[in-house]
Design goal:
Shape: elongated
Largest sheet: 14 strands, mixed
Radius of gyration: 23 Å
Structural class: alpha/beta
CATH topology of the largest domain: Aminopeptidase
Number of helices: 11
CATH architecture of the largest domain: 3-Layer(aba) Sandwich
Helix content: 25-40%
CATH superfamily of the largest domain: Zn peptidases
Length: 439
């Protein structure tokens, strides 16, 4: 059995349509993936899970003084709504939100770049800021896509002040106009929706109790066909499934196509939650997020031990695979597995500066090609086959200290409790209960 780039390419063409989390199109893509699995003789299931979907009815930014102007904005989900009449105040550009930039934000609507953190938004609220505007987009984008601002939700818990997104070209105009009074109106509600993971299983033979999970998200953002991000990752694990279906494997292999990655790795988090008891048997997660770009370079982010990093680097060198690898966390589904205690890594083929783009309508099949797609796939097939059939599990179930720190920081950003602290709280409560019994 050989890896088939044309089969992979055909599937990529089939799923290259907008497939936003919680929509009928996402479910359509899930069913396509499930059908391909079953036609190849591999059992697959669709696992539904609940997601928060934000309906934004009003998002409006107006400069009132010194001269009236209205800017196109979109609301940020899970931020506070304004009163119906909006909020009116002064304006300040706070750059990246450093302490020096937020000393005088009381009664103002602030403009900022970067993602921000829950801590920053809490500081802004305490200091009296009325709302915030996040800068988005690319200053060199074609005019035709400048209104295609990517919808997103705030990180962590619901934010205490309203937020909107503004394109960087408009942000530049806003700053240069030196507004003295602005008005922000944002009305939104959160409703429940349904998203889906697709899970296929190839049982192992004599080492079937140990599991390797291959993962890739298959959802896209609005406006985007998501051919590169992450149709390519989705067809990569499908091709690996075909490969191992024919070759067989000593260990059990799971293939997980994750929904709702684009709204905060939700699908992979839900998978890990739903399969929490099984994860003790998962020895490694190999994730893919964007492969196959014509002009690019090979990357691997290892969220595991230094030993695992060195093993990947060694095999890459032996096979003349031009890989840039490092320890860390990747903003993809491997982080969910690692946060659940499973050593993980993400393989990607990333773009050269000025090259392919994601999260807008330019993410089509035009910037990728079958031969470039095979560069990542052929190496990972070799790498994963060695792990799947090794007599002894070669992946230590541990994480480098630097990785632990990054995982903790990521959990903090998403407003998730650190596992160790949660365990300590449980132990404290148990001890309190015992003491009360003794009394």
């Amino acid at each position: 059995m050989t890896l088939d780039k044309l089969r992979a390419w055909k599937l990529l063409e089939e799923i290259s349509f907008v497939r936003v989390a919680g929509t009928e199109e996402e479910l359509k893509a899930a069913n396509i993936l499930k059908d391909v699995c079953e036609k190849s003789g591999v059992e697959a299931v669709i696992e539904d899970f609940e997601i928060d979907m934000v309906n934004i009815s009003v998002a409006k930014l107006e400069v009132l003084e010194p001269e009236y102007h209205e800017y196109h904005v979109i609301g940020i989900g899970k931020t506070a709504s304004t009163p119906d009449e909006g909020v009116t105040g002064g304006f300040k550009y706070i750059e990246d939100g450093s302490d020096a930039n937020i000393t005088d934000v009381e009664g103002k609507i602030v403009l900022m770049q970067g993602r921000g953190t829950p801590e920053l938004y809490e500081k802004l609220q305490k200091k009296g800021a009325l709302g915030y505007i996040l800068i988005a987009g690319n200053i060199y984008e074609d005019e035709s896509i400048k209104n295609e601002l990517r919808p997103s939700n705030a990180f962590g818990k619901d934010h205490p002040i309203p937020g909107v997104k503004l394109h960087i070209t408009d942000a530049e105009k806003l700053v240069l106009s030196k507004p003295t009074k602005v008005k922000l109106t944002m009305q939104a509600e959160t409703v429940k929706g349904t998203s889906h993971n697709v899970v296929a299983t190839i049982p192992g033979t004599d080492l079937k109790d140990e599991v390797i999970a291959f993962s890739a998200h298959y959802d896209s953002v609005p406006y985007s066909k998501g051919s590169w991000d992450n149709g390519t990752g989705s067809v990569t694990i499908m091709e690996l499934m075909h490969y191992f279906k024919e070759k067989g494997t000593r260990r059990t292999l799971k293939f997980v196509w994750c929904g709702s990655e684009e709204i905060g790795l939700v699908g992979s988090k839900e998978f890990c939650k739903a399969h929490e008891e099984e994860l003790k048997d998962y020895i490694f997660n190999i994730n893919f997020d964007m492969t196959g770009v014509t002009i690019g370079f090979e990357k691997c982010c290892v969220t595991a031990s230094e030993d695992t990093l060195h093993a990947i680097e060694y095999l890459a060198k032996v096979n003349n695979y031009p890989l840039s690898a490092d320890l860390g966390t990747y903003s993809s589904d491997s982080t969910s597995f690692a946060s659940a205690g499973v050593p993980a890594c993400t393989f990607a083929r990333l773009n050269a500066m000025g090259g392919a783009q994601i999260h807008n309508n330019t993410d089509t099949m035009d910037r990728i090609d079958p031969d470039s797609f095979m560069i990542t796939l052929e190496f990972v097939a070799l790498f994963s086959e060695q792990i799947a059939n090794a007599s002894v599990n070669p992946i230590p179930r541990k994480f480098a200290d630097s990785v632990k720190e990054k995982l903790d920081a990521q959990k903090k950003m998403f407003g998730e409790p650190e596992k160790e602290k949660e365990e300590e709280k449980k132990e404290d409560k148990a001890e309190e209960a015992e003491e009360k019994k003794d009394e």
